[in-house]
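pinging the channel bc i need a second pair of eyes. not urgent but kinda urgent?? the chain im working w is below, pasted from the shared doc
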Amino acid sequence: MIGAIIILGALGLLYGLGLAVASKKFHVEIDPKIEAITEALPSANCGACGYPGCAAYAEAIVMHNEELNKCAPGGAAVVKEIAAIMGKEAVAADKKVAVIKCQSGGKNNTIFRYEYQGVTTCKAAILINNGPNLCSWGCLGYNDCASACKFDAISIDENGMRIIDKEKCTGCVACAKACPRNLIEIVSAKKRVHILCSSHDKGAESRKVCGNKTACIGCSMCVKKCPKAAIEMKDNLAVLNYDLCIMCGICADVCPTGAIFDPLKEIRAKKRAEAKLKAEAAAKAAEEK
């Protein structure tokens, strides 16, 4: 018994010495800049930078001269801190936000084919006959996007619709990755006009299956009226090229279903009406003279 204990002790000591020698021989020095940048990053590990985690992004910055402004959650403050560590100029990235390209998915504006009683996630629901909602392109409504958001940027209103808080949204793409129907796009926060539909059904079918009748019906009115050719039809769906779009809002004005969102639509309409009244008044005054 004593002999066995001595042998085990000797083996343990031998292995311990071997590990100690190996740790010194194969030790890899970590650049202190990597550790400093990792500490500066928000530890969100969201993947928005294109790397699996904050530590990997920090290593890419130091070892491979990666851009300093790819951390969406960190924003300008983190870019400034990383730039100071690297001794470079801080250039903030264009803020990105998520846009949900569907206006259905709520309790009162979705037409259901059947009552779904399974696991309440979008990924689970879509496995049962492609989901319970009649529109096979629309929001399933089980909030996988909100659950994936680490910044509390997606809220649910009284109708069950998902609302993006642009101030909280960091454009980290977590919600976009979570949506099984790919309804969420990450775009520049400077862009205000959006086509909020993802249906490729033909017009009559889109009208039939969309609960709030705001689906794109492929009429091409927006394509014809866009002054910059920023919209094209792709398989019955109007698709906006944000790089070409000048946010004039003409497409939203001519869209017959309200599939195109422009927050300034009412203001522009009011200004046009006022301008028309002024022109009519001026014309009438000229006639009276």
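so The domain at 31-93 is CATH 1.10.15.40 (3-methyladenine DNA Glycosylase II; Chain A, domain 3). and The longest strand covers residues 96-100. — does that match what u expected or am i reading it wrong
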